[in-house]
Write a structure and sequence with these properties.
29% of the residues lie in helices and 25% in strands. The chain has 436 residues and is an alpha/beta fold. The strands form six sheets. It has a four-stranded mixed sheet. Helix 1 runs parallel beside helix 3. The longest helix is centred in the first third of the chain and has 13 residues. The chain starts with 5 loop residues before the first strand and ends with a helix. The structure holds shikimate-3-phosphate. The site of shikimate-3-phosphate (S3P) has 10 residues, from helix 5.
Length: 436
């Protein structure tokens, strides 16, 4: 088995015991960025040490933040720059991370120096115009220099910006956050209106760090008045519900399973996967541990022999956008049809996740249909093992390795290196269950 190829087989025993998946990716990026700007130092516990989030942390070090190692790689102290970051000595490598690049663009556009960000082949094809347009409307000087129009590398000539009121053309937490981060460094009030509720980690961290923000219209409108002062404050990152989702589905589809996922983020703007799986008939018990800040708790999933298809509602889509590939896998093991529409954003993720999910499901023998804005899966037929491509997409790789745990024979996923962008240790967790 080469480093980038992973193979699994149908397992005949359930997934048992407790599992702790790594820290939340979205929260980790934001903690690095806000902590790096803050006055003072703060302990970060359970940061996601994946390639994506480490790239953002290194970028913040390039701006002058210090990182003092703690007792484990995921625990460290950030010494902030007291709102005085300096120009990076080198171009900033964002690796595979759209979140890192888009969020940092908001910050860098409002700082008084030039910077340049670049990414890998996949990131260099992803749309950046969605953040460039509102930032330019604030007066930012950003040039997309990629071979593909509107794509990275991004050359940013930072300057004092003007506040803006911006209505997002799509439900994107990254675009919302890029504008809010620029707004917090800009004099005056910047307001973002979103068409649907998207993950609100930026808003929650604003509160954590004492950044005054106003949330209205049931969470659809957020205003921040800058320039703000950020005060460092210790933080613990919960386990990533998007990573936990792979094991929720694994436990639901593999007979004999009873798996407890520990300390998982339960933020209501991220937890629709739980409601949808329960609606499909999955046996899921949730024990909240903490309900303030970023809520988290334990999730126990048992084998669920009577899964049935469901329709994903339009306003659920932003809440489970990253879980759709693994949800489609669950749908393949459920009786009846599952339909996901209003999800065209999937086409501009690390891969075109509508096309890649449908292709891999079909290769395993599932009935799946592709729409411009989503997909339908008609479940209930047994899946067979296959050799599949991950299309260099971490979530496609992990979703189909989980499918392989309950497909006849062997399943091999090619090009799995990208799993490290969000879930270092996934292969070890997988082997723990394969070898149990
Ligand atoms: C993220 C927002 C989502 C999500 C991504 C992380 C974030 O992207 O898919 O993995 O941390 O804000 P969009 O904002 O593009 O929908």
């Amino acid at each position: 088995m080469s480093n980038s190829t992973l193979s699994v087989h149908k397992i005949l025993h359930g997934l048992q015991g407790n599992l702790t998946v790594p820290g939340d990716k979205s929260i980790s990026h934001r903690v690095a960025i806000l902590g790096a700007l803050a006055h003072g130092s703060m302990q970060v516990t359970n940061y996601l040490c994946s390639e994506d989030c480490l790239n953002t942390l290194r970028a913040m070090q390039q701006l002058g933040a210090q990182v003092i190692p703690g007792d484990a790689p995921q625990n460290f102290t950030i010494v902030g720059t007291a709102m005085q970051p300096h120009a990076p000595a080198h171009d900033i490598d964002c690796g595979n991370s759209g979140t890192g690049m888009r969020l940092m663009a908001g910050v860098l556009a409002a700082l008084p120096f030039a910077s340049r960000m670049y990414g890998d082949a996949s990131l260099s094809k992803r749309p950046m115009q969605r953040i460039i347009a509102p930032l330019q409307a604030m007066g930012a000087r950003i040039e997309a220099q990629g071979a593909k129009e509107g794509c990275a590398p991004l050359q940013i000539d930072g300057k004092r910006l003007s506040p803006i009121t911006y209505t997002l053309p799509m439900a994107s937490a990254q675009v919302k956050s890029a504008v809010l981060l620029a707004g917090m460094l800009t004099g005056g009030t910047t307001t973002v209106h979103q068409p649907a509720i998207t993950r609100d980690h930026t808003e929650r961290l604003f509160e954590h760090f004492g950044i005054p923000a106003t949330i209205s219209d049931n969470g659809l409108s957020i205003s921040v008045t800058g320039p703000v002062t950020i005060t460092a404050k210790n933080i613990t990152v919960p386990a990533d519900i998007s990573s936990a989702a792979f094991w929720m589905v694994a436990a639901a589809i593999v007979p004999g399973s009873k798996l407890c996922l520990r300390g998982v983020g339960l933020n209501p703007t991220r937890n629709a996967i739980l409601r949808v799986l329960q609606r499909m008939g999955a046996h899921i018990d949730i024990t909240p541990t903490c309900t303030v800040g970023e809520p988290y708790g334990d999730i126990t999933v048992r084998y669920s022999p009577h899964l049935k298809g469901t329709e994903i509602l339009a306003d659920e889509v932003p809440n489970l956008i990253d879980e759709i590939p693994i949800l489609a896998v669950a749908a393949a093991f459920a009786q009846g049809q599952t339909t996901i529409r209003n999800a065209a954003e999937l086409r501009v993720k690390e891969s075109d996740r509508i096309a890649t999910t449908v292709q891999n499901l079909r290769t395993m023998g599932a009935a799946a249909e592709e729409f411009e804005d989503g997909l339908a899966v008609c479940g209930g037929q047994p899946l067979h093992g296959a050799v599949l491509d991950s299309f260099d997409d971490h979530r496609i790789a992990m979703s189909f390795l989980i499918a392989g745990l309950q497909a006849e024979g062997h399943t091999t996923l090619l090009h799995c290196k990208n799993i490290n962008t969000s879930y270092p240790g996934f292969a070890e967790h997988l082997h723990r269950f394969l070898n149990a």
